[in-house]
Amino acid sequence: MYSKYHPFFENFFFGLGADIINSENTNKRILNLGVKHCVDEACLPVKIYHGHVASIKDQCDFLVIPRIMQIHNYEYICPKFCGLPEMIMHSIPNIPPVTLEPLYMHSNKSLYKWCLSVGSMITENKRKIRDAFEHAITAQNSFRTGINNPNNKITVMLAGHPYILNDSYINMNIIKKLNDKGIGIITEEFAPSPLADSQVKKLIVKPFWTFCRNLYGAATAFYQESKINGIIYLSSFACGIDSVVVDLIRLNTGDFPMLVIKLDEHTGEAGVDTRLEAFIDMLERRMQKNIATFSSHSTVI
Ligand code: SF4
Questions:
Q1: CATH number assigned to the domain comprising residue 243
Q2: How far is the CA of 39 from the centre of ligand 1 (A)?
Q3: In whole angstroms, what is the distance from residue 279 CA to residue 259 CA?
Q4: Ligand 1 atom closest to the CA of 211, numbered from 1
Q5: Full domain range(s) for residue 226
Q6: Rounded CA gap, 7 and 73, in Å?
């Protein structure tokens, strides 16, 4: 989530006069630390989060572990985020003080409440906290994430949670691999909002997870508008939300090509490359033969 919201967090803490230490990019050492400290049942991103904390804990006075609860009104984030501070505190020994305040990001008022609580760990000057908060909001509002480089040949929607799509170690450099093969990529941030929202509203039961709404809405909107030739969904093994989203997309896009790559700490890069190449070959053949519909080409690895 830092890849999406780092302008806010960096500007806020810089504004308070704190030094910020970021953990290094995910690598084998961090993954191993995460696997060592985290419970087996957790998903890969949560394990890796443990690894990042373990790698940096001895260098700082306190750890910012945002307990993200809500990003939009009437929607929630995965429960694993709500319990992240407790998971960390009970799994990793000798950690410095941790931020515990729940983070509701759906309004400036609720976001400021978090800033006031966390900022008080650094300064008692409320004016300073207010100024840092306002500066952070401005920086975040002018920041845009996502990929939008479609091409005339083949374009795929790259779907998945931001902490998978934006971490080249977890996703095994898939963005570069697709770019090198001349495949265009578009992500959910660039979906036409009204159409994506209307797709979600058509569901009998509205999903209350933000990730689910965003990914399902975007995938079906791109499909409806014929903006993409296929969907590559990077999923985390043991992610409850992904298991629902993937099925929802399949149910509502018929036989549209979709490759689901499930990632965990045992996933081998060679296996992913093979499936990726087979999927792209299939898309190319489909383009050449101008086949309107395929059957049985949704693949899970
Ligand atoms: S949404 Fe899925 S991948 Fe993300 S933290 Fe929750 S279980 Fe893990």
A1: 3.40.50
A2: 14
A3: 7
A4: 1
A5: 148-300
A6: 22
pLDDT, tens digit (0-9, with 9 covering 90-100), for 46-95: 999 999 999 999 999 999 999 999 998 888 999 899 999 999 999 999 99
Domain ends where: 86, 110, 141? 141
CA gap 255, 299 in Å, rounded: 11
Give me the amino acid identity at 133.
F
Does residue 130 sit in the same domain as residue 270?
A: no
Q: 159: Cβ below 6 Å to ligand 1?
A: no
Say what the pTM is: 0.91
- Residue 123's beta-bridge partner residues? none
Measured by CA distance, the residue closest to atom 2 of ligand 1 is: 239
Q: Among 117, 141, 165, identify where a domain stops.
A: 141
CA-nearest residue, atom 7 of ligand 1: 239
60 and 109 co-located in one domain? yes
Q: Is 242 helix (H, G, I), strand (E, B) or coil?
A: helix
Tokens for 190, please give them: 């660039």
